[in-house]
Amino acid sequence: xxxxxxxxxxxxxxxxxxxxxxxxxxxxxxxxxxxxxxxxxxxxxxxxxxxxxxxxxxxxxxxxxxxxxxxxxxxxxxxxxxxxxxxxxxxxxxxxxxxxxxxxxxxxxxxxxxxxxxxxxxxxxxxxxxxxxxxxxxxxxxxxxxxxxxxxxxxxxxxxxxxxxxxxxxxxxxxxxxxxxxxxxxxxxxxxxxxxxxxxxxxxxxxxxxxx
Length: 212
Ligand code: CO
Fold this sequence. Notes:
Bound molecules: cobalt (II) ion
Distance between the termini: 58 Å
Helix content: 40-55%
Number of strands: 5
Structural class: alpha/beta
Low-confidence stretches: none
CATH superfamily of the largest domain: Carbonic anhydrase
Radius of gyration: 19 Å
CATH architecture of the largest domain: 3-Layer(aba) Sandwich
CATH topology of the largest domain: Beta-carbonic Anhydrase, Chain A
Shape: globular
């Protein structure tokens, strides 16, 4: 389907009118301050739009997306969003949402060079090497990609838990739970990996930071 930019603008007008008809106060409420309880780190992939796949309204999820849903310690864009989510919005949940059939994951499994993105997915190639044995035991390339997708989500959950912004928040007594989920593009279903971090005590001893 080829949708022209002017079609998108026309669709927007129809959508806004339908929302107003359904709930006359909807946009007035949103035009105040956003107060989402969720911070979502997802992939840039066009098939995984955060609010749409969990069927929730705009205003409910603060979203950061990049290729392969990475929560890097040196990514100023991500760190800015994380600090705002934790310290200003005071979200209660952080969701790392990976997805199967991810181009970034597939690229990291291969040896082909892809340009700038090779720098971005460097940590995924390191992760692939760290878990080489597990990935070699996979039944085919698709299963290996699924496994690396899940390993990546768990790694990003830990990255966020180890982040000084989260550690300081937990030490102040703020309640924030980090969840690892994976979305299957093929059937539209989100899977909870049951991999969570919810307090400073629960993180690896070697990564703990103290205030003094
Ligand atoms: Co992706």
